[in-house]
Design goal:
This protein is α+β, with helices and mostly antiparallel strands. The chain has one domain: Alpha-Beta Plaits (2-Layer Sandwich), CATH 3.30.70. A four-stranded antiparallel β-sheet has the order 2-3-1-6. The protein has a two-stranded antiparallel ribbon with strand order 4-5. A hairpin with a 6-residue loop joins strand 2 and strand 3. The longest helix has 11 residues.
């Protein structure tokens, strides 16, 4: 089991410090990052928490997955490795 956890179904009012405090009850939180919209800065409702050990990560999943966070059941599980994205772009056609 990895130490990096995916945390989903968060209320938009959630903050990194609140999330860190919730996970701190299960062990040492190495880092906490909420994902936000790059244009508006609004939370996208999910983030990632890194725990210091695998056992603390497992304890956090067991104790927090499905628990209520401002009326929403949090989803907590092991984060999957980020997939490589292909180079985007494209377009084409005549520009003239």
């Amino acid at each position: 089991m990895g130490k990096r956890l995916y945390v989903g179904n968060l209320p938009y009012s959630a903050t990194e410090s609140d999330l860190s405090a919730k996970f701190g009850a299960s062990g040492t939180v190495e880092s906490c990052k909420l994902i936000t919209d790059r244009d508006t800065g609004q939370s996208k409702g999910f983030g990632f928490v890194e725990m210091s050990t695998d056992s603390e990560a497992h304890a956090a999943i067991d104790s927090l997955n499905g628990t209520d966070y401002d009326g929403r059941p949090m989803k907590v599980n092991e984060a999957k490795p980020q997939e490589k994205r292909s180079g985007g772009g494209g377009g084409g056609g005549n520009r003239w």
